[in-house]
Amino acid sequence: xxxxxxxxxxxxxxxxxxMLKQDRTDARxxxxxxxxxxxxxxxxxxxEAVREYERVEADYQDLERLLADVTIVESEQSEVxxxxxxxxxxxxxxxxxSYRIVSEAEADLERGTISMTSPLGRSLMGATxxxxxxxxxxxxxxxxxxxxxxx
Length: 151
Description:
Layout: E1 3-5, H1 7-36, H2 44-68, E2 70-72, E3 86-90, E4 97-102, E5 113-115, H3 119-124, E6 132-137, E7 140-150
């Protein structure tokens, strides 16, 4: 099954890939510079440069593979929560919270996105406006009310 991404998530991951490409170039340059001044068996600077390059290269290749096989999903107005929707919820008397339901690859709580495979995301999928759902979290069961579903 292809990875689903929102258009915004796809753009963010492409930007991250571009940054990793630059980081990879910078890491290669640090290796070249360290080679000029080191004894390869004992030089910490060279060893650290190689490790950094290997980490960046692995991240770059992983992200490149991920982006090679994705499906961009456009969020649509819906009566039930589906992938890509923004959902406004409230737990008890707490303030409202708003989350966009996305894939694991683009989930970022600080940006208001949660994975559809997270406990909350899984519980919200298929919910309707006005519905109160139970969410099994690591901290226990909570109840949240779905207040609105937006594209």
